[in-house]
Amino acid sequence: FDIYEGDQIEDGFKSVAYSIVFRAKDRTLEDSDIQSAMNKILKELESMGIELRA
After folding, report:
1. Is residue 53 part of a domain?
2. Which terminus of the chain is more exposed, N or C, with fewer CB under 10 A?
3. Is Aminoacyl-tRNA synthetase among the key words of this record (predicted)?
4. Is the dihedral of CA 11, 49, 2, 53 positive or negative?
5. Is residue 15 part of a domain?
6. What is the pLDDT of residue 53?
7. What whole-number distance in Å separates Cα of residue 13 and Cα of residue 38?
């Protein structure tokens, strides 16, 4: 939802903020469901050379 390229970001880099919503149609999600999904997302981002700043 936000892309920043400015003085505080190294040349050739961007800071990207985004929002993720996790839902299940049939049940309440548990922390382990969210953690598993986040691990997959972070692993994929890492494989593309994307660095998590937060």
Report:
1. no
2. C
3. yes
4. negative
5. yes
6. 76
7. 23
The C-alpha R_g of the chain, in whole angstroms, comes to: 15
Residue 54 counted as domain residue = no
* Residue 11 pLDDT grade (very low, low, confident, very high; cuts 50, 70, 90): confident
Residue 52: inside a domain: no
Q: Residues 31-44: pLDDT tens digits? A: 999 999 999 999 99
The alpha carbon dihedral of 52, 54, 2, 25 has a sign of positive
Q: Residue 11 sits in which domain range?
A: 2-47
For the chain, how many structural domains are there in total? 1
* CA separation for the pair 4, 51 (Å, rounded): 15
Give residue for tokens 């149609």: 25
